[in-house]
Write a structure and sequence with these properties.
This protein has four helices and no strands. The protein is flat, with a radius of gyration of 25 Å. The longest helix has about 40 residues.
Length: about 150
């Protein structure tokens, strides 16, 4: 299992090192022929290691499930209370997404004509996104009551 994690880490570290190298030494000429296959090999190594980790990790989790003691039962009332705690966050994030969509489109259109109003459009987007934060705060306050 640990060898899969080391393969994933090796692939990610190679990609990060190559990205840092390209950032520090930008090249005007096109990259060498071996660059695309090398990056593809690193990504392929990462994906294969991730799939192996999922496969072996799922097998270990299923094998260890019999040893775990059963968890305490949750009553119907507690389950409904937990659903009720999550509803303010769910509804507020959906509302924030509905609000940010048109505001973002309108602010981009306005910025194309007058770039100096960037600060105002950013405030409007922040106000629309604040709806989600209010719902999250309500859920945290309700969770404290349970």
């Amino acid at each position: 299992m640990y060898w899969l994690i080391s393969l994933m880490t090796l692939g990610v570290l190679a990609l990060v090192a190559w990205g840092i190298h390209l950032e520090l030494n930008p090249q005007r000429r096109p990259p060498k022929r071996w660059l695309k296959p090398a990056i593809g090999a690193n990504l392929g190594l990462f994906v294969l290691a991730e799939l192996g980790l999922l496969l072996f990790g799922a097998q270990e989790a299923m094998a260890a499930a019999a040893e775990v003691a059963p968890a305490a039962e949750i009553s119907v009332g507690m389950g409904l209370a937990l659903i009720g705690v999550g509803l303010p966050t769910a509804f507020s994030t959906v509302a924030a997404g509905i609000a940010v969509g048109p505001i973002g489109a309108a602010s981009l259109a306005a910025l194309a004509e007058k770039p100096e109003i960037f600060g105002r459009t950013l405030v409007y987007l922040g106000l629309a996104e604040g709806i989600a934060i209010y719902g999250l705060v309500m859920s945290i306050l309700l969770l404290d009551r349970i």
